[in-house]
Amino acid sequence: MTAAGQAANQATDSNTGTAADVLTAIGPTGMLVLLLMAAFALYVVSLSLHPNAKCGRCKGAGRHHGSIFSYAQRPCSSCKGRGIQPRFGRRIFFKQQ
């Protein structure tokens, strides 16, 4: 075989790495970093698709009932009667109020 033929065979052999070869090459720390980056990307996509969460104080109702007079209602002071609040990550990454 000629030198050019051997070089061509080496080039094709090096491009046929399996997933196990890739995992071995990056090691456990690289795999952890890769998984953390994927989880972070999914979280940011989740924030963009679902930016609001149900208010934890009024449980999404937007109103509080009185403790003594249960028929009395007032707007929730936490969500201002909307029933939803921005998720924590939305406030950090997207700077919305």
Describe the structure.
The protein has 97 residues and is of the alpha+beta class. The chain is built from three helices and four strands; from the N terminus they run H-H-E-E-E-E-H. A two-stranded antiparallel sheet has the order 1-4. It has a two-stranded antiparallel ribbon with strand order 2-3. Strand 2 (63-65) and strand 3 (73-75) form a beta hairpin. 4% of the residues are buried. The mean pLDDT is 81.
Number of discrete helical segments: 3
| Model regions low in confidence, pLDDT < 50 over at least 5 residues | none
Q: Regarding quaternary structure, how should these chains be classified?
A: single chain
Helix-residue proportion: 40-55%
Spatial ordering of strands, largest sheet: 1-4
Terminal Cα separation, in Å?
A: 69 Å
Q: Structural class of the secondary elements?
A: alpha+beta
Shape descriptor: rod-shaped
N-to-C series of helices and strands = HHEEEEH
Find the count of extended strands (DSSP E, 2+ residues).
Answer: 4
Give average pLDDT, whole number. Answer: 81
**Proportion of residues in β-strands:** 5-15%
* Main sheet properties: 2 strands, antiparallel
Radius of gyration: 27 Å
